[in-house]
Amino acid sequence: MASYTLAQLAEQVQGVARGEPTLRIEAVGGVEDAPTGGLTYAEDARRLQQALTSPAAAILTKPNLAPPSDTAKSFLLHPMPRLAWARILALYSPFRTPPPGAHPTVVMGDGCELGDEVSLMPYVVLGERVRIGHHVRIYPFCYIGDDTEIGDDTVLYPQVTIMPQVQIGKRVIIHAGAVIGGDGYGYVPHDGAHHKIPQIGRVVIEDDVEIGCNTTIDRATTGETRIGKGTKIDNLVQVAHNVQVGEHCLLVSQVGIAGSSRLGHHVILAGQVGVKDHVQIGDHAVVGAQGGVSKNLPPNGVYWGTPAVPHREWLQVLAHLYKLPELAQRVAELEKKLKERP
């Protein structure tokens, strides 16, 4: 179990400890579930008031949120407490770093190359000519296909499937159940049947990407499907063949992107957004939840609805939509009056 003094946590996040620096912090939690004697987090004045009455012994907050002088609680002060909180939570993660080495149950094909301090946990299977960088962690029951490359400090959680000829960058995190490099969805109709189009391309995952549980990213028909640097993908997302996702995008749960679409950088697709094939979405565009993108979207806009339109236009549509029952009644009354006219 992780255990740090308040001073040690302050050093880890480059913050300042106030009160009792030797206080031992063995648990952390939000204000709703603050652990007795542990550390909690308050980003604003309202949360700080809640934290002051919680059982926590210490509070992470901003320097300008002056704590009362009569409190017995200690404080960890940081100008960006949310960022500091994220770093502290990582210290208390239940996922401990496994020791380097390959478990006896690992199956490894010919020509594999492993970097320094690689951890291969039970029942990992490597195909032939797999190249793995330094400090990579691969959890149980993962499959890595032939000719795949995995960069330094990447983590694959249990039951991740990486099909052949996938390139994965450095510091990538792939969560349990994700499948990278499965066949794209392509068929040719002929004589009343659907004939499969072989998918012979690859997938490239650039550095610092995170991919959620049970997400699927299809290999290209030819060429490559690419996920740009720093992009974060939620659980249950489908990225089809030959899609190009730019750098630092956010794809929220249940997003589906059809084949050969292109996203610029810093694009945000909220939950359950669907993107038609061969569509382009510009840099910094945001598509609201359950939006349907059926045509190209310019950069820097916020879009909602199906088909997705600029947000202001969508608000106008909604305003009229909720008036439809009233409008229908008025039309019926007008029609009745017209029929009654001589």
CATH superfamily of the largest domain: Hexapeptide repeat proteins
Shape annotation:
flat
SS content category: alpha/beta
Can you tell me the residue ranges where pLDDT is under 50 for at least 5 consecutive residues?
A: none
- The first-level CATH class of the largest domain is given as Mainly Beta
Summarize the structure.
The chain is α/β, with parallel strands linked by helices. It is about 15% helix and about 30% strand. The model has no long low-confidence stretch (mean pLDDT about 95).
Describe, in plain words, how this protein is organized in 3D.
- This protein is of the alpha/beta class and about 350 residues long.
- The protein folds into two domains: about 5-90, 3-Layer(aba) Sandwich (Udp-n-acetylmuramoylalanyl-d-glutamate--2,6- Diaminopimelate Ligase, Chain: A, domain 1); about 100-315, Hexapeptide repeat proteins (UDP N-Acetylglucosamine Acyltransferase, domain 1), CATH 2.160.10.10.
- It is built from five helices and 39 strands.
- Strands 7-10-13-16-19-24-27-30-33-36-38-39 form a twelve-stranded mixed sheet.
Secondary-structure map with pairings?
Elements: E1 4-5, H1 6-13, E2 16-18, E3 24-25, E4 39-41, H2 45-52, E5 58-61, E6 74-77, H3 81-91, E7 101-102, E8 107-108, E9 113-114, E10 119-120, E11 125-126, E12 131-132, E13 137-138, E14 143-144, E15 149-150, E16 155-156, E17 161-162, E18 166-168, E19 173-174, E20 179-182, E21 187-190, E22 193-196, E23 202-205, E24 210-211, E25 216-218, E26 224-227, E27 232-233, E28 238-239, E29 244-245, E30 250-251, E31 256-257, E32 262-263, E33 268-269, E34 274-275, E35 280-281, E36 286-287, E37 292-293, E38 302-304, E39 309-310, H4 311-321, H5 324-340
